[in-house]
Amino acid sequence: MKQTKQIEEFTKGLIQDNPLFVIVLGLCPALAVSTEVINAIGMGAGVIFVLLGSNICVSLLKDFIPENVRIPSYIVIIASFVTIVEMVMEAFAPDLYKNLGIFVSLIVVNCIILGRAEIFASKNKVLSSVLDALGMGIGFTLGLLIIALIREILGAGTITLIPISAIGFDGKIRLGWLNNYPAKVFAFSSGALLVMGYLKAFFDWLRKRSAALQKSRKSGKSNLVQSTGGDK
Amino acid sequence: MIKLLGIFITFVFIENFILTKFLGLCPFIGVSKKMDSAIGMGFAVIFVMSISSVVTWFVWNILLINLGLKFLKTVAFILVIATLVQFVEIIIQKISPPLYKALGIYLPLITTNCAVLGVALIAVVNEKYNIIECFFAGFSAGVGFMLAILLMSSLREKYETEWIPKPFRGIPIAFITAGLMALAFMAFDKALLTNILGKL
């Protein structure tokens, strides 16, 4: 019983409560860095690290932080982890750091992180907070990857990954005619907003459908047969 | 003077924070359902952005650079902004209760508005503006936010009476509207700026 609850805490962030498409938090970095797949991966890794660190710290310190100053304290904890990410990224992945620009610093105001600290980590034990952070972080990264894939494939006809010089791979997978005739609008800011709108609509539709399916499953098979019969 | 005008046009139109940089999208989508609340949010943002860009200029140029603590910029800026928002809230509550009533609920939300931290980072750290230019950049970015959120809220009020396909109702249609607005804002580009400034 306990284990299934923990698994649930991990998986809920992936689809059911996906931070990007269901809760609609942390949009600014998500849309801004989704022009190339590699940026999305870098951003996702940064967010997972910060989320993990802040969730662990907050859930450890929850009994020591006075109620009145909890939000500033959370922000300081988050900002410290963001500074770590900034410094590590600047040192080891300078190209990525340049691409992401101010959005690395802006992880600090990513509402997902403060939101999880306030809603979840300040009320739960360390282990569940870790699982929650991992689930939410991976859910965010997955969402980001979907947006980035759509935007880069349609907008530039490429998929940018990490370049590996040993085999002469420059980090870009080019996709034939899409690369020759890209729909540039997807690379612009308006493309990001349009893609996000359609994806959100799709996820809403998916959620409603699966809820309706579950309902009909619960109410028994006879009902389902009747309804299909009615369709004919 | 011309540089200030250039900053104004850049931050309001060419690099509108919401529509080209995606800064401040959460309040933009969240608070744009009604015109009244959009206006309240817009004024609160203009107010906080103008002050915070000046204060962060002092923090960056006087404290952090001289002490060699540039890497602390994220922590320092967000703390200054959070404190400032609280401070402004208390002062407005004392001085002008009607204004507090109008802005009240939106002020705390601004702390986590990435546009405020964004304008501080762009104007103070990246562009290295002087103090007057910083104030102007903050003010103009706020005006740009106000413009976008006003346009958005007036459009969304119209949507209330229109038929929209079910899955698109609410947030998705707001995103698509914002996307089309961003497309329209692409007409304002750097060439336009040099054109305008060249004629003066």
Secondary-structure map:
The complex is a heterodimer of chains A (232) and B (200).
Chain A lengths: L1 H10 L15 H6 L4 H25 L8 H23 L1 H7 L10 H11 L4 H30 L2 E3 L11 E3 L1 H5 L8 H30 L2 H11 L1
Antiparallel strand pairs in A: 1-2
Chain B lengths: L1 H13 L10 H6 L4 H33 L5 H23 L1 H7 L2 H5 L3 H13 L4 H29 L11 H15 L4 H10 L1
Helix pairs in contact in B: 1-8, 3-4, 3-7, 3-8, 4-5, 7-8
Structure explained in plain terms:
- The complex is a heterodimer of chains A (about 230) and B (about 200).
- By secondary structure, chain A is mainly α.
- Chain A has one domain (about 1-220).
- Helices cover about 70% and strands about 5% of the residues of chain A.
- Chain A contains ten helices and two strands.
- Chain A has helices spanning about 1-10, 25-30, 35-60, 70-90, 95-100, 110-120, 125-155, 175-180, 190-220, 220-230, and strands at about 160, 170-175.
- Chain A has a two-stranded antiparallel ribbon with strand order 1-2.
- In chain A, helix 4 (about 70-90) crosses helix 5 and helix 4 packs across helix 6.
- The model of chain A is unreliable at about 220-230 (pLDDT under 50).
- Chain B is mainly α.
- Chain B has a domain at about 30-150.
- Chain B has ten helices and no strands.
- Chain B has helices at about 1-15, 25-30, 35-65, 75-95, 95-105, 105-110, 115-125, 130-160, 170-185, 190-200.
- The mean pLDDT of chain B is about 85.
- Chains A and B meet through helix 2, helix 4 and helix 9 of A and helix 2, helix 4, helix 7 and helix 9 of B.
What keywords describe this structure?
heterodimer; A: 232 residues; mainly alpha; two-stranded antiparallel ribbon; 10 helices; 3% strand; globular; disordered C terminus; B: 200 residues; 77% helix
